[in-house]
Design goal:
Oligomer: single chain
Helix content: 40-55%
Shape: elongated
Number of helices: 9
Low-confidence stretches: 68-82
Strand order of the largest sheet: 4-6-7-5
């Protein structure tokens, strides 16, 4: 999975965070800074890493250490139920089943398959995490911002979103969406790209976000 300047790939350093398009671990940067090296020293030592990538990674670190959410959470970094960039295996499997069910339904009515994108799914998953933690109500708060962010990753036109709470299977959440005229229209639309993100708190209910572009 690629998130801007950071890539997680099980085939590279066992899935450790690395600078995108390199095999240089992100922790190498912070180890160098801890050792007294300057940013210039690091870039000279690791020419595969661009200055833009380094600035982006430091920007993430700044957001994590200065945001109100982190401060209120006693500095428990990335405490959005877990890390939304790394879903658990059961959540990832359920997301895949929902995507498959949606495309099976679309195929049954003569529509082409949605191309699901991992980056768009991450955006959707963060919204599901916010709903699961009661940061936002179950609904579409922040929809425009999510669509704008998703368009950085896929060449989609327009945008739509379905959300849900409490379902335990892909068939159940799909059926609920198909029973809602607005949600059904989104699933059966001509939009071509999507992301499905699911989150839950502990043993609580599943929260679903489907983004379509």
């Amino acid at each position: 999975m690629q998130i801007g300047a950071i890539t997680f790939d099980n085939n590279i350093l066992g899935g450790e965070a690395v600078f995108t398009n390199t095999k240089i671990a992100i922790r190498t940067l912070f180890n160098a800074l801890d050792s007294g090296d300057s940013i210039g020293d690091f870039l000279n030592d690791f020419p595969e890493v661009t200055e833009a990538q380094l600035v982006e990674v430091l920007g993430y670190a700044r957001q994590l250490t200065t945001s109100a959410d982190v401060i209120r959470g006693n500095a428990t970094l990335l405490k959005i139920v877990g890390n939304p960039f790394a879903p658990t295996e059961d959540i990832l499997q359920l997301e895949n089943h929902v995507a498959q069910s949606i495309n099976q339904h679309r195929g049954s009515i003569g529509k082409s398959a949605i191309t699901f994108n991992a980056d768009v799914s991450t955006i959707a998953r963060v919204h599901s995490a916010d709903m699961a933690q009661n940061k936002v109500p179950v609904g579409h708060d922040g929809f425009d911002a999510r669509i704008a962010e998703a368009k950085q990753f896929v060449p989609g036109a327009g945008g739509a979103e379905d959300v849900g709470e409490g379902f335990t299977s892909a068939d159940d959440v799909l059926q609920a969406w198909l029973n809602s005229p607005d949600d059904k229209a989104n699933i059966e639309s001509d939009l071509r790209f999507g992301g499905i993100g699911i989150e839950r708190v502990g043993q609580g209910p599943n929260y679903f976000t489907l983004l379509l572009l």
